[in-house]
Design brief:
It contains three helices and seven strands, in the order E-H-E-E-H-E-E-E-E-H. It has about 160 residues and is of the alpha+beta class.
Length: about 160
Amino acid sequence: MTTETKSADIQLIQRILPHRYPFLLVDKVVEIDGYQSAVGIKNVTMNEPHFQGHFPGTPIMPGVTIVEAMAQTAGVMLGVGMDVIDSELLIYFMNIDKCKFRRKVVPGDVLKMHVETVRGKKGGKIFKFSGRATVDGEVAAEAEFSAYVDWDMEKTA
């Protein structure tokens, strides 16, 4: 199962991630290759609450939410790739490195989050990911991030 390419719609995403509006930042994951790589989609809309203050009259998606969207895509990838759906999976940031922002992300954009596992294995607790977020093929942000995965593989098996 972990080597097949899969996808996740919003219903499956909500069975994997504990996040809910307004902090669920991935609408679908269109490509999942085990727990090695994934591509998530975030449709950026004006009705998101952070646009009220960031910035009035010039709405720009905050960089930290772009990085969070990449991390949530990685969480969905782990949930599907390791078959731990409906398991109360929690993932916590440990660090964010080499983070760079290259272009503004604004309402109407479709943000694509490309994530790859750099280090980590099935049943492991520590994972490192590489992420790149793009809009229309142009890099908006990139980062490496590590996460602690809080799961009990015996309960999720």
